[in-house]
């Protein structure tokens, strides 16, 4: 019995290590959190944003759907306005990002009268097929990005940007 | 492009494409009756020029607004800025303002004057629509300068 008795010294050592451990954990946890927080946040960006576009009203002709979400940069919170060109392809809805792959202007559907079935970038006359694939010989070097799409209560929802799935 | 490091780097590498500078000219009025109106015009000018930047990001660089008061205003300001920007490699320099007095410089400078619209009282979607309408009015000015 006396062999297993915890001496005063041992007791103190255990307690201090224990408390010290908690203190260390208390200090480390926020650090770990800060370190992995950016990873957690990208997950949030993947969330879907509700739009006011009724899914059933989407036809084969691309229409522009505006949406906005909140972005935090340091302490500065701002509302970011974004848009997508949306159309139906078979039983699927396609959402194309309007950001030109050349230098980032906003492209429009059918705004060039000589190419009424293409996306047109007014900045340097960049053109894209309806699928978002860039037309060779115009400045853009890659296809327009796409958005993940979903439906909620009959309304279109847009998710994160993904690489264009149409191949040239 | 905006006046920030990553965008400026792009400008320096792609001057042949990013050839236009947009310079907002903003009058600040601190008088009791004028301050609110002046801030409203400022908000409108910033929203609109930011929207123009978003639409034509690859072709223009939006500079921070040049602000002045009645007493610090200088008639030579735009011509001086224009020259400095030309030296920096911009082909066209466009001034956007809600201050009507600049319209007398229209003959030798690209000045787009717009009557201010009080956006602060509007909700998001109305605001967006108004800005789009305003942008449509500005686009012919831009294309005239570009062709
Ligand atoms: S930014 Fe679209 S063609 Fe240059």
Secondary-structure blueprint:
The complex is a heterodimer of chains A (168) and B (147).
Chain A: H1 8-45, E1 49-54, E2 63-73, E3 76-89, E4 92-96, E5 108-109, E6 119-121, E7 126-128, E8 146-152, E9 155-162
Antiparallel strand pairs in A: 1-9, 2-3, 3-4, 5-6, 6-7, 8-9
Chain B: H1 5-13, E1 20-27, H2 35-55, E2 60-62, E3 66-68, H3 77-87, E4 92-97, E5 110-113, H4 124-146
Parallel strand pairs in B: 1-2, 1-3, 1-4, 4-5
Helix pairs in contact in B: 2-4
Residues 100, 102-105, 121, 123-124, 126, 139-140 of chain A line the site of FE2/S2 (inorganic) cluster (FES).
Radius of gyration of chain A: 27 Å
Helix content of chain A: 10-25%
Strand tally of chain A is: 9
- How do the SSEs of chain B run, as a string of H and E? HEHEEHEEH
What's the CATH topology name of chain B?
Rossmann fold
Distance between the termini of chain A: 82 Å
Helix percent band of chain B: 40-55%
Strands of the biggest beta sheet of chain A: in what spatial order? 1-9-8
CATH topology of the largest domain in chain A: Rieske Iron-sulfur Protein
Q: Globular, elongated, flat, extended or rod-shaped: what is the shape of chain B?
A: globular
Report low-confidence residues of chain B grouped into runs of 5 or more: none
Structural class of chain B: alpha/beta
- Overall 3D shape of chain A: elongated
Characterization of the model:
The complex is a heterodimer of chains A (about 170) and B (about 150). Helix content of chain A is about 25%, strand content about 35%. Chain A is α+β, with helices and mostly antiparallel strands. Chain A has two domains: about 10-40; about 50-160, Rieske [2Fe-2S] iron-sulphur domain (Rieske Iron-sulfur Protein, 3-layer Sandwich). In chain A, strand 8 and strand 9 form a beta hairpin. The termini of chain A are far apart. Chain B is globular, with a radius of gyration of 15 Å. Chain B has helices spanning about 5-15, 35-55, 75-85, 125-145; strands at about 20-25, 60, 65-70, 90-95, 110-115. Chain B has about 150 residues and is an alpha/beta fold. Chain B has one domain (about 5-145): Rossmann fold (3-Layer(aba) Sandwich). The longest helix of chain B has 23 residues, at about 125-145. Chain B is about 45% helix and about 15% strand. Classes of the chains: A alpha+beta (about 170), B alpha/beta (about 150). The interface of A and B includes residues 68, 81 and 123 of A. Chain B: InterPro entries: DUF2487. Chain B: Pfam families: DUF2487. Chain B: It comes from Solibacillus merdavium. Chain B: This is YpiF family protein. Chain A: InterPro entries: Rieske_2Fe-2S, Rieske_2Fe-2S_sf, Rieske_Fe-S_prot, TAT_signal.
């Amino acid at each position: 019995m006396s062999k297993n008795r915890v001496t005063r010294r041992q007791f103190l050592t255990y307690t201090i290590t224990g408390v010290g451990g908690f203190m260390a954990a208390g200090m480390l946890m926020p650090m770990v959190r800060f370190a992995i927080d950016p990873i957690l946040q990208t997950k949030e960006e993947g969330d879907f944003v509700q739009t006011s576009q009724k899914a059933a009203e989407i036809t084969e002709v691309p229409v522009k759907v505006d949406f906005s979400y909140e972005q935090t940069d340091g302490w500065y919170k701002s509302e970011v306005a974004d848009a997508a060109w949306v159309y139906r392809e078979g039983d699927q809805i396609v959402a194309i990002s309007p950001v030109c792959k050349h230098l980032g202007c906003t492209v429009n559907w059918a705004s060039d009268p000589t190419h009424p079935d293409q996306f047109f970038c007014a900045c340097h006359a960049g053109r894209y097929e309806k699928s978002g694939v860039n037309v060779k010989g115009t400045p853009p070097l890659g296809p327009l990005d796409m958005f993940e799409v979903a439906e909620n209560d009959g309304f279109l929802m847009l998710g994160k940007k993904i690489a264009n799935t149409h191949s040239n | 492009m905006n006046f920030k490091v990553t965008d400026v780097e792009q400008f320096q590498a792609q001057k042949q494409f990013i050839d236009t500078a947009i310079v907002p000219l903003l009058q600040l009025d601190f008088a009791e009756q004028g301050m609110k109106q002046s801030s409203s015009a400022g908000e409108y000018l910033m929203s609109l020029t930011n929207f123009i930047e978003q639409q034509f990001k690859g072709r223009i660089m939006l500079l921070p607004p040049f602000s002045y008061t009645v007493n610090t205003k200088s008639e030579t300001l735009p011509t001086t800025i224009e020259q400095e920007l030309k030296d920096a490699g911009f082909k066209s320099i466009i001034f956007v303002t809600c201050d009507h007095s600049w319209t007398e410089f229209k003959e030798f400078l690209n000045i787009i004057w717009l009557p201010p619209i009080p956006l602060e009282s509007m909700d998001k979607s109305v605001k967006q629509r108004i800005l789009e309408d305003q942008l449509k009015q500005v686009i012919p000015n831009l294309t005239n300068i570009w062709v």
